[in-house]
Amino acid sequence: MRFVLLFLIFVFSLMFLTLGIAKADYRLIVPQSPGAGTSVWAQIFAKHMSEAMKEKFIVEHIPGINDIPGFNKFHNELRFDDKTIMVAHGGNAESFLVDKVDYNYADYEPIATMSLNTIVTRNKTVDIEKDKIRMAHNSGVNPDMMAIIMLVCGPQKDVTAYLDCYKKRVIYVKGMPGSESRLAFLRGELNTIRETYVAHQKFLADKVKFGQAIDWFNHGVYDFSTGKIVQDHNFEGVKTFAAVYKERWKVEPSGDFYEAYTLMKNYRDVLQKALFVNKGNPNTEKLRQGVAYMITDPEAKKAFEADIGDYEWFVGKNFATTIGKLKTQITEKKLKTLVRITNEGFGFETIYKPELLK
């Protein structure tokens, strides 16, 4: 009798253990500290995906320098758990192009992404003909700075000339988080800043409205069907970088510096809020269907728009196709130009990665 009782306890324990594994929570790995932009977005995603799929999604933060350690840990350890999802952002995409990182988008199943955009605003007193541009560097800002350099310096014969002009006309302040740079701009210590749509509406729209600041340009959004950059309806009335450049310099932007900017800008913006699981994850299609269902919910749509603006989602195979299109934009010349700009110009140690050409 005792043996039978022990056997039944063992069987029921095994059943509960198996059930516990089956019902394990989904983990969203965020490579930032709580309260940062991607963390806030992930919390919104977790809430509405939990409701859509009737399973719990929790957010786990793994912060570190340039937001790289969290993604590296996902790649090296965490991705092999079928219920672990990476929440990557545009700064990760920039690092993928020029930094020594362990992660590789080719090793994952793409679940969904939101392609975003930013706007660059300057103090109204700035004379772009002669004044130095003072702007802070933080994660994902290098494409904004590259666009500013081209607008201030105009057509140059080569990258060397752009870097020479940059050193004369721009002060790029390092080590200042986004919240601090915003305060520095509002105090007048910086004269230029970039923001997302919602942050711009919250912190800068009134300064623009009352004539204290000028919305300089937005980058436009990547048209997934054509591969071209088009106007962002969130920033209606604010011209794209290309339009502002042509208006000032009477020619279209072109050349090696511009091509390198386009590559980094597209990677940053298309992969700005991107979800991945490990290659072969059995939950891939389930998660894709969950996202597709979630984004039809008016409450979820309202919550995401309140956080980052009205931007399009790309889910499953549409997202995978887009990653393939991004990869075709990588060339040896563009990568080497990016490394030179970030090393010689911005002062960050980056590397040329020929493996990205394969």
Detailed description of the structure:
With 358 residues, the chain is α/β, with parallel strands linked by helices. It folds into two domains: 2-115 and 272-315, Bordetella uptake gene, domain 1 (D-Maltodextrin-Binding Protein, domain 2), CATH 3.40.190; 119-267 and 331-357, no CATH class. It is built from 15 helices and 13 strands. A six-stranded mixed beta sheet has the order 2-1-3-12-4-13, with helices on both faces. Strands 8-5-9 form a three-stranded antiparallel beta sheet. Strand 1 (26-30), helix 2 and strand 2 form a beta-alpha-beta unit. The chain is globular, with a radius of gyration of 23 Å.
Number of strands: 13
Gap between N and C termini: 66 Å
Strand residue percentage: 15-25%
Number of domains: 2
Low-confidence stretches: 1-22
Radius of gyration: 23 Å
What's this model, at a glance?
The protein is of the alpha/beta class and 358 residues long. It has helices at residues 2-22, 37-53, 68-76, 90-98, 142-153, 159-169, 178-187, 197-203, 205-209, 241-249, 256-270, 284-294, 298-308, 317-328, 332-345, and strands at 26-30, 57-61, 84-89, 108-114, 119-123, 133-136, 170-173, 192-195, 213-218, 221-222, 229-230, 273-278, 313-315.
